[in-house]
Amino acid sequence: MLKYTIRRIIGMIPMLLLISIVVFLLAKAMPGDSLSGEIDPNNTNPEYIAEMREKLGYNDPLPVQYFDWVKGFVQGDFGKSTRYKMPVSDLIMERIPNTVFLGVSSLLITYILAFSMGIFAGRKPYTIGDHVIGGLNYLGLAIPSFIAGVFAIYIFSFNLGWTPYAGSVEVGLQEGTLDYWLSRIHHVIMPAIVLGALATASYTQFLRNDIIENSRKDFVRTARAKGTATSKIYNVHILRNSIIPLITFLGFDIATIISGAIITETIFTYPGIGQLFLNSVTTNDYPTMMAITMLLSLLTLVGNLIADILYGVVDPRIRLD
């Protein structure tokens, strides 16, 4: 296991280099550049603009610009946001707690709903309850997150007034107090439900189908022939084998904590990494956009590594050498 982990970590280095090249070239291929955010908007002197372009390195050859960017990135210098006029690293650290809080809350909702409905549907297949759960899953797969978010705001915020429709915490509350955390939960609950409930469908169907398939295998028949309790058969023998496919999703969920919230955070005006990324694209804030893209790529690779390791933990038959 240790040798496998080390090999995978070393193998991530060329992958990250390739991703960095693609991200850099795509940013350079986009129309315009971030120069307008770096200079004084009141000074339109061509000589001043040319001087600033030379000073900021926009006239350097692409390989030189790429090397300078990678060198700074490795050292933890992600550049300066051309929109917010502050280091990108500080900007990300300011926003990432909100996104992590939203992501963890949505994942809890996803797994609670998926395990509850998946186990029920798998143990009682082709019943009315199973068909109802299947219908809800298809509905969740069919509804885009931005549609669900708009309806959630209209119904629960504007009409019923149960939840706020913007922000992450009420203004004026002292950080760390009980009222502060209650306000944060109050602000995150609706986007978390939208994000988590829509992601439940695929998890539920995978778990249901695997439970049904495993319940027909020989080891289950043997356990029943020995008089093993039905609850133990499902909870120990079947469920342990059925959750293995979900481990794959768990690895990707690490990146989903940030990337999956882009649309949801924008709709709910929730100040997180997702909203920051979308704003950086629309305002040509390339340092911020490139840093967040590389962060998502790194999280995806780490998530895949964790998923592979968890395979061996959940199923001892799988050996990673």
TrEMBL record:
Record's signal peptide = none
Location relative to the cell: Cell membrane
Gene Ontology cellular component? plasma membrane
User: What membrane topology term does the record carry?
Assistant: Multi-pass membrane protein
Q: Pfam families attached here?
A: BPD_transp_1, BPD_transp_1_N
Give all residue intervals belonging to the ABC transmembrane type-1 domain. 96-307
Domain of life the protein comes from: Bacteria
Primary localization class, coarse: membrane
Q: Name one GO biological process term.
A: transmembrane transport
Task: Please report which protein family the annotation says this sequence is part of.
Answer: Belongs to the binding-protein-dependent transport system permease family.
The protein, known as: Oligopeptide ABC transporter permease AppB
Q: What species was this sequence derived from?
A: Jeotgalibacillus campisalis
